[in-house]
Write a structure and sequence with these properties.
160 residues; mainly alpha; Four Helix Bundle (Hemerythrin (Met), subunit A); 8 helices; 2% strand
C-alpha cells in the first residue's frame, strides 16, 4: 500500500495552504473548461461526431485532461488528510469516499470514468466510439459533480 505522501513530490509546494487552495481552484476550473469543450465539439453535430476523428480527438484529449485534474486534486486532498491509496489513480476516489468526503456512488462512477479514460488515451483496448458517445452524453456530469466538491474543499483548505 502506498500512502498519498509517497505518491506526490515532496517539494513543499503542496504543503502550503494557499498553494493547495489555489491549485485545487485552478484544477476545478480546468475540469469545467474541459467538460464545456467536450460538449461544444459534440454538440456541433452529434450524428457526424462518430465519423469525425478530429472532433473525437478533441473530446478524448479534454476528457484526459479533466480526468487527470480530478486525480491530481484528489491526491492533494488525500495527502492533506493523510489517507491511504492503493496503486492506481482511481483509488483516490475510493479513499475520499471511505473518508466521507464524497459519495460512494460518485467514487464508483469516477473510477469507471477513469478506467474508460485509460482505454481511450492509452489504447489498452480498442475503444468503441459508441462508448465515447455514452460518456459524453451521460457521464460528464460526474466530473462537474466532483468539481463542485473541489470548490467546497478548496475553501476548507484555507481553514486548516
Amino acid at each position: 500500500m502506498i500512502t498519498a505522501p509517497d505518491i506526490l513530490l515532496d517539494d513543499g509546494f503542496l504543503d502550503q495552504q494557499v498553494a493547495s487552495h489555489e491549485l485545487v481552484l485552478d484544477k476545478a476550473a480546468s475540469i469545467g473548461r474541459c467538460v464545456a469543450r467536450i460538449r461544444e465539439v459534440y454538440a456541433k453535430d452529434s450524428i457526424t461526431f462518430k465519423a469525425d476523428i478530429s472532433r473525437q480527438d478533441v473530446a478524448i484529449c479534454n476528457l484526459q485532461r479533466a480526468c487527470q485534474a480530478c486525480i491530481d486534486t484528489g491526491l492533494v486532498l488525500v495527502r492533506r488528510q493523510r489517507l491511504d491509496v492503493q496503486q492506481s489513480g482511481s483509488d483516490v476516489f475510493e479513499a475520499l469516499a471511505q473518508a466521507g468526503e464524497i459519495d460512494q456512488g460518485l467514487a464508483e462512477r469516477l473510477q469507471r470514468l477513469i478506467s474508460f479514460h485509460y482505454v481511450a488515451v492509452y489504447s489498452y483496448e480498442v475503444m468503441d466510439i459508441l462508448d465515447l458517445v455514452q460518456v459524453i452524453e451521460k457521464q460528464l456530469n460526474n466530473l462537474l459533480e466532483f468539481k463542485s466538491y473541489l470548490l467546497v474543499a478548496a475553501e476548507n483548505l484555507t481553514e486548516i
